[in-house]
C-alpha cells in the first residue's frame, strides 16, 4: 500500500470516471495546441513527408487530431492504476485471441513487434487476454519518482518490465527456462547514431529501423506478430494480431523488419492521427530540407 501513498495524486486522479478525465484531456489539448503549440513544426513536417498529396489544411487537421488523441492516450494510461478487469473488456477488444492461444499450445514464445500506434500503453492489459508471460522493454526515466510510476502503470496486471539494456539477456534466460513469453518490443523509434539499423522504404522514404526485435525472435525461435490498433471511438480500441512469421528467421535476414514497416505504414494510413507524429522520425530529411 505504500506505493499508493507515494503516488497518491495520480491514484486520486485515476479514480475519476473516464468522462471526467477526458475533460482534463481536452483542457491539456487546448493548452498544448493553442498556447504552447507543442511540436507543431515537427508534427507537420512529418505529416508532409508521409502524405505529400495532402494539402496544408489537411495536414493541419491531421496534426490537430493527433494531438487530441495523444492527450487522450496519456489520460487513458493514467487510468491503468485503478481500472478493473471488467471495465477493460469494455474498452479493449481482441479480434483474434485464438492466434496467440494456438502458439501457446505449441509451446512457442512470441515477439510482439509493436509501434507507437493506437494506445500502446494499454498493451499493459494483455495479460488479461493471453496465456503467455507478457514482458515489455522500457527505457528507464532519469527521474526515479516518475520512473517508478510508469512501471506501476505498465506492470499492474502482470507485465514484466525489463530495462532495454537488459532485454536480450532476460528474454534469452526466460527462453532457456522454457517460460513461454509474449514480448512487447516497440520498433518504430528513430535509431541512435551508433545503433544497429536496417533501412527500408517507409512512406516512400528510405528510413532506418532498429535491429533488435528480429534478432531476439531469431535467437529464441519466436513467432513474430504485429498488433494492429483500430480506434472504434474515444476510449474503445480493437487489436488484431497479424502474423509476420512463425518460421525460423535466418541470421542477417531483414524480411521481418521489411514486413513490419509495410504493416505499420498500412495501419497508420488507415487512421493517421493514431501514430506518434511528434517525434523526429525523419530527422535527416528535416536537416536536408533546411540546407
From TrEMBL:
Claim: Cell division is one of the keywords in the record: no
Domain of life of the source: Bacteria
A GO term for molecular function: acyltransferase activity
One Pfam assignment: Lip_A_acyltrans
Key words, A-Z: Acyltransferase, Cell inner membrane, Cell membrane, Membrane, Transferase, Transmembrane, Transmembrane helix
Localization of this protein: Cell inner membrane
GO BP of this protein: glycolipid biosynthetic process
One GO CC term, this protein: plasma membrane
Transmembrane segments: 12-36
PANTHER family: LIPID A BIOSYNTHESIS LAUROYL ACYLTRANSFERASE, PHOSPHATIDYLINOSITOL MANNOSIDE ACYLTRANSFERASE
Protein's name in the database: Lipid A biosynthesis acyltransferase
Organism field: Acidiluteibacter ferrifornacis
Organism lineage string: Bacteria, Pseudomonadati, Bacteroidota, Flavobacteriia, Flavobacteriales
Amino acid at each position: 500500500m505504500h506505493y499508493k501513498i507515494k503516488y497518491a495524486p495520480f491514484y486520486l486522479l485515476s479514480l475519476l470516471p473516464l468522462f471526467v478525465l477526458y475533460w482534463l484531456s481536452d483542457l491539456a489539448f487546448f493548452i498544448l495546441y493553442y498556447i504552447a503549440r507543442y511540436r507543431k513544426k515537427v508534427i507537420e513536417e512529418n505529416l508532409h513527408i508521409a502524405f505529400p498529396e495532402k494539402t496544408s489544411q489537411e495536414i493541419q487537421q491531421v496534426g490537430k487530431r493527433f494531438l487530441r488523441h495523444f492527450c487522450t492516450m496519456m489520460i487513458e494510461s493514467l487510468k491503468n492504476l485503478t481500472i478493473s478487469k471488467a471495465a477493460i473488456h469494455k474498452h479493449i477488444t481482441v479480434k483474434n485471441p485464438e492466434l496467440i492461444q494456438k502458439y501457446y499450445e505449441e509451446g512457442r514464445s512470441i515477439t510482439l513487434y509493436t509501434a507507437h500506434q493506437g494506445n500502446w500503453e494499454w498493451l499493459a492489459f494483455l495479460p488479461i487476454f493471453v496465456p503467455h508471460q507478457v514482458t515489455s522493454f522500457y527505457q528507464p526515466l532519469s527521474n526515479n519518482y516518475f520512473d517508478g510510476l510508469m512501471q506501476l502503470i505498465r506492470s499492474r496486471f502482470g507485465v514484466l518490465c525489463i530495462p532495454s539494456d537488459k532485454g536480450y539477456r532476460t528474454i534469452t534466460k526466460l527462453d532457456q527456462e522454457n517460460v513461454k513469453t509474449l514480448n512487447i518490443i516497440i520498433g518504430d523509434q528513430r535509431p541512435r547514431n551508433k545503433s544497429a539499423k536496417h533501412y527500408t522504404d517507409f512512406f516512400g522514404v528510405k528510413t532506418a529501423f532498429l535491429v533488435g526485435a528480429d534478432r531476439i525472435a531469431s535467437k529464441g525461435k519466436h513467432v513474430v506478430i504485429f498488433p494492429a490498433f483500430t480506434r472504434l471511438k474515444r476510449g474503445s480500441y480493437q487489436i488484431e494480431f497479424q502474423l509476420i512469421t512463425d518460421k525460423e528467421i535466418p541470421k542477417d535476414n531483414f524480411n521481418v523488419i521489411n514486413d513490419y514497416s509495410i504493416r505499420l505504414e498500412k495501419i497508420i494510413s488507415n487512421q493517421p492521427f493514431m501514430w506518434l507524429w511528434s517525434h523526429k522520425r525523419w530527422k535527416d530529411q528535416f536537416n536536408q530540407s533546411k540546407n
